[in-house]
Structures are given as structure tokens and as C-alpha cells.
Specification:
The protein is mainly alpha-helical and about 325 residues long. The protein has helices at about 5-20, 30-45, 50-75, 80-90, 95-110, 115-120, 135-180, 195-215, 220-230, 240-250, 280-310, and strands at about 255-260, 265-270, 275.
């Protein structure tokens, strides 16, 4: 079986597995990677960029090497190759957990239980929930759904299409390391620099594809393109900016503004300033758009792999 078909069948099966099963409550492979990365950090940590780069290289290189070794072991069997791709895709994508958490918060808000929504928000993003009212929580959820559509689904599929199982595992390793050490804090300002910068580079293709597909699949394509063009560059994140702006324009809502992380208040630029404020029903609309974008990304990845295979013949 050709490599393009292995990816298409395996990634589709992995996305279906995520849709039906979601993430396991115990023993998730990403959690195991996180524990291993934390163990490596305890050995290597110094307040320096060099040590941080070594930590990033060891952890990401190990994930890529493991994926490459596994792929080589099964390459003589098309069925095993598809199964491995499916398992790796299921392990690294998180679309169902993202949708489940977003909808749970939305249900709590619909029931008027703001405290329950606040208690669940940390499962989805790092905002300070006590600083948010119901509409503020809804806005945080929509922004997180947009950003994580790229980080938890599309980015993985892009790298899976480009590099197979090693690409899938490598992307998730980079993204997980950024979440662990890539934030600006006294401990990780230097040590996490390499992980944060690598995440910006590796996440760029998936973020742009997510923005394109959100515009194509959303109810207001022109609004999505306009918000992306006008506002994405003002966002502090080079990858979250295009994604959140495109989602904002596609859904006709206004994102960005003042928010609080760990007691630190940030005043971010408004995205799609002509849109209306986010309300609770927009959570469901964002989740549905995220789902459409994920499946479209699979189609784009499979088509790109098919074209690359055809040119290489």
C-alpha cells in the first residue's frame, strides 16, 4: 500500500477513534511523555537557553526517533502501518476532549451556574476564572476552541501528512513542551525559550491552514478573511492570531481584549472589532466549526500526500 493511502486511512481511523473514544482517563501517551520530559528537566535544568535547547532536543528527538523506529518495524505490513498511524493519530489529537470540555462549560452557563463553569475553565485554558463573568467565560472558551483546533488537531495532521508517524509524535512533543516550559516565568524565561520558539515554527503551517479552513467552512468567509488580514498581526502570538481572528470573523463575534493569567492582567488587541460580543450559544457554534475544520484538514493532508506521491513516481 502506498504511503499516501496509509496516512489517509490511518489518520481517518485515528480521528474516528478520537470522536468515539476521546482521551483515556488514565495512561494517556501524551501524559507519559510529559512525565518523561519532566524527569529530563530535573536532570538538565539550569537557568540558561543552552540547557533548555538541550532539553528540547532530547525530548523532541526521542519522540521522533520512537515514531521512526515504530514505522520502520511495521513498514512491510500495510495493515500494521495503517494501524500504527491510526494509533498515533488518536494519541496526539484532542478534538473530542476539547469539544467535551467546551460544551460542559456551555451547559453550566446555560443553566446559570457560573461557579460550575469557572471550576471547569482551567481544564480548557489558563485564564483566571474568578475574574470572568458568564460572557467573559464564553469568550475565553471560544478563543480556546479556536486556538486548540490548530494545536490539538490541524497541526498534528499537517505534520502527519508531511512526515508520517514521526511527524505526528514530534508535533505533539513540541506542543506539549511549550505548554510545560514555554511560558514566561522566572524559572522558564531562559530554559523554555527554545521550546517556545520551536513551537512557533512548527505550529505555523497548521495555524495558517486552520485559519484558511475556518474561513472556508464558517458562515461568513469574507468576515473571516477580513478579520485575519486586519487583526491577526496585532495578536502577541504569531500562530494564535490568525486562528482566533479567522474564527472571530467567521462566527461574527469579537474576541480579544482584557484578560488575566496567573494574576497578570493583559490587554490584548480586539479581533474583529465590528463583531458582536460572544454569548453562550457561540460556544456550540465554535465547536461545530472546529469539527468541520478538523475533517477538512484531514482531506487537505491526504490530498497533499497523494500529490506528493504522484510527483515522486
Amino acid at each position: 500500500m502506498r504511503a499516501d493511502r496509509v496516512f489517509a486511512y490511518g489518520a481517518a481511523a485515528g480521528l474516528l477513534g478520537d470522536l468515539l473514544l476521546g482521551d483515556p482517563r488514565r495512561g494517556h501517551p501524551v501524559a507519559a511523555f510529559g512525565r518523561a520530559a519532566a524527569a529530563v528537566e530535573r536532570v538538565l535544568w539550569r537557568d540558561s537557553r543552552g540547557r533548555g535547547a538541550l532539553h528540547t532536543g532530547v525530548c523532541v528527538g526521542g519522540a521522533v526517533a520512537l515514531g521512526g523506529l515504530a514505522a520502520r518495524r511495521v513498514r512491510s505490513s500495510p495493515a500494521a502501518s495503517v494501524a500504527l498511524t491510526a494509533a498515533a493519530t488518536w494519541a496526539v489529537v484532542g478534538g473530542t476532549s476539547l469539544a467535551r470540555e467546551a460544551r460542559a462549560i456551555g451547559r453550566a452557563l446555560q443553566d446559570g451556574d457560573v461557579e460550575a463553569a469557572r471550576s471547569r475553565l482551567p481544564h480548557l485554558c489558563g485564564r483566571d476564572p474568578q475574574a470572568l463573568d458568564a460572557d467573559g467565560i464564553a469568550r475565553a472558551v471560544v478563543e480556546s476552541v479556536a486556538e486548540n483546533t490548530s494545536d490539538a488537531v490541524v497541526g498534528a495532521l499537517v505534520w502527519g501528512a508531511a512526515a508520517g508517524v514521526p511527524g505526528l509524535l514530534g508535533f505533539r512533543a513540541v506542543n506539549t513542551l511549550d505548554a510545560m516550559v514555554g511560558h514566561r516565568s522566572p524559572r522558564y524565561l531562559r530554559f523554555g525559550w527554545a521550546s517556545a520558539r520551536l513551537d512557533d515554527v512548527v505550529g505555523a503551517p497548521g495555524a495558517r491552514l486552520t485559519a484558511v479552513l475556518a474561513a472556508a467552512a464558517g458562515p461568513d468567509p469574507r468576515g473571516a478573511v477580513r478579520a485575519w488580514r486586519d487583526d491577526a498581526g496585532r495578536h502577541p502570538s504569531p500562530n494564535a492570531g490568525p486562528v482566533e481572528a479567522s474564527f472571530a470573523g467567521a462566527l461574527g463575534v469579537r474576541l480579544g481584549g482584557t484578560l488575566s493569567y496567573g494574576g497578570r492582567v493583559e490587554h490584548r488587541p480586539v479581533l474583529n472589532g465590528g463583531g458582536r460580543p460572544v454569548t453562550v450559544p457561540d460556544i456550540g457554534r465554535a465547536v461545530r466549526l472546529s469539527r468541520r475544520v478538523g475533517w477538512l484538514a484531514l482531506g487537505v493532508g491526504a490530498a497533499a500526500r497523494l500529490l506528493a506521491q504522484g510527483r515522486g513516481r
